[in-house]
């Protein structure tokens, strides 16, 4: 009780003192922004315009920072600030990363303070500089809020292949990577509203690490680019050609080679969680042309009114995840992988189709799951894609790779689309209601109602 009172008194005093001494400050330079980023209790409004980072971090300053092992461009270490940055764009020459030579996974803009609000900032990467991994922006402090922050990410090597030649681990890659990701959240109570990451880089758009609690995304947007494997195979020079198009994972024929007929995203995932993160939620968010739309496989999550467009794999979910009124297509890859227990999914299947090879609509494994599939806007796909009950995702989630069978028990599947259903031999005690044909009936004690 005594500790609680001390903490309460400190919080009240800090809050009152912050209010008393808060200032409304107008700035018009990155030098001033960096100065007030380290202070607390202010409202900072920056004059609209494009600010070149090289005007602030000159080669001489970068050299000094490199010697001092100071790798962040600007660190927001202050607390209880409001940064009004509407129509402010920071132009980041990626050559700065090359000059600094930071260690792997170094962040460029870092928020370590607490209870800050950032409104309207745009960060745009230009140039061809790279470094061994890293993130444009990390939010590490607690209870920070980002509103309408936009990142244009570039500066990775090689760009143009996605994860065809590996994901970054040196032992598994056939072409060595230098990634550059967008926005990383590691701080508890982080809230993001209307934020965008437009990636032209090999790396994640939004991702969460280090097990933060109560992270919330609303009206956020992640976008990458896509490229066909046929176009990759047409190259006559470059890193893919130099390794004879050798991939890091095998295709359905057991060969480690780029296979024609598929579409690859050139970035990584739109929204990604690593490890268990308590109380993570996504509402009205969209992922377009990313590798995974929402890859939340080892994490409980709440996903509501979210959309995927043209992803390699749309939703990949784990234990205790809830999906409400979500939507996506299987234009370039599967719509859903369920890899866990006690999930509750309501998913609209968009009718978009292409000439690219796709081998399943969804796969389901685990226990006590409920999956409801509906045709979006009442329009069914014309190309049949099987719903695989009692199957794993393809190896590493790669569409070119083979599937395996796995246990699924007590699944309740309601398929209101016309897509066919395949029930594997490791399926048991499942209840399946389907408007589509059942093309495989294996397993034990399954109740199947074809409408």
UniProtKB/TrEMBL annotation:
Keywords: Signal
First and last residue of the signal peptide: 1-22
Name of protein: Right handed beta helix domain-containing protein
């Amino acid at each position: 009780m005594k500790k609680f009172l001390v903490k309460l008194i400190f919080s009240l005093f800090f809050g009152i003192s912050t209010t008393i001494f808060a200032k409304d400050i107008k700035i018009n330079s990155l030098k001033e922004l960096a100065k007030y980023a380290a202070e607390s209790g202010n409202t900072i409004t920056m004059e609209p315009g494009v600010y070149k980072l090289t005007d602030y971090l000159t080669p001489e300053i970068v050299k000094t920072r490199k010697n001092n092992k100071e790798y962040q461009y600007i660190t927001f270490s202050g607390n209880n600030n409001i940064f009004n940055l509407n129509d402010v764009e920071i132009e980041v020459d990626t050559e700065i990363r090359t000059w600094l030579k930071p260690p792997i996974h170094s962040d460029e803009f870092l928020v370590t303070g607490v209870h800050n609000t950032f409104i309207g900032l745009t960060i745009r990467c230009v140039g061809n500089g790279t470094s061994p991994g890293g993130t444009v922006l990390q939010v590490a402090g607690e209870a920070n809020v980002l509103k309408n922050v936009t990142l244009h990410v570039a500066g990775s090597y090689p760009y143009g292949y996605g994860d065809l030649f590996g994901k970054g681990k040196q032992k598994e890659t056939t072409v060595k990577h230098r990634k550059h990701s967008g926005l990383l959240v590691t701080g508890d109570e982080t809230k993001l509203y209307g934020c965008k990451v437009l990636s032209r880089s090999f790396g994640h758009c939004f991702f969460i690490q280090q097990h933060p609690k109560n992270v919330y995304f609303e009206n956020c947007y992640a976008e990458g680019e896509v490229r066909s494997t046929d176009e990759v195979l047409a190259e006559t020079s470059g890193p893919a050609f130099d390794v004879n198009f050798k991939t890091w994972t095998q295709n359905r024929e057991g060969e480690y080679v780029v296979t024609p007929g598929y579409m690859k995203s050139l970035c990584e995932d739109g929204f990604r969680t690593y490890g268990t993160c308590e109380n993570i939620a996504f509402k009205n968010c969209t992922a377009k042309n990313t590798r995974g739309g929402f890859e939340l496989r080892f994490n409980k999550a709440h996903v509501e009114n979210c959309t995927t467009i043209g992803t390699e794999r749309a939703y990949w979910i784990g234990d205790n995840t809830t999906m409400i009124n979500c939507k996506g297509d299987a234009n370039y890859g599967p719509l859903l992988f369920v890899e866990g227990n006690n999930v509750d999914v309501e998913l609209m299947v968009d009718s978009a189709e292409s000439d690219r090879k796709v081998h399943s609509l969804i796969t389901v494994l685990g226990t006590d799951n409920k999956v409801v599939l509906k045709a979006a806007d009442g329009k069914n796909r014309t190309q049949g894609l099987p719903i695989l009950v009692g199957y794993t995702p393809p190896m590493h989630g790669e569409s070119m790779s083979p599937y395996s069978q796995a246990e699924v028990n007590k699944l309740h599947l309601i398929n209101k689309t016309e897509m066919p259903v395949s029930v594997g031999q490791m399926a048991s005690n499942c209840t399946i209601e389907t408007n589509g044909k059942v093309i495989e009936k294996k397993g034990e004690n399954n109740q199947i109602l074809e409408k």
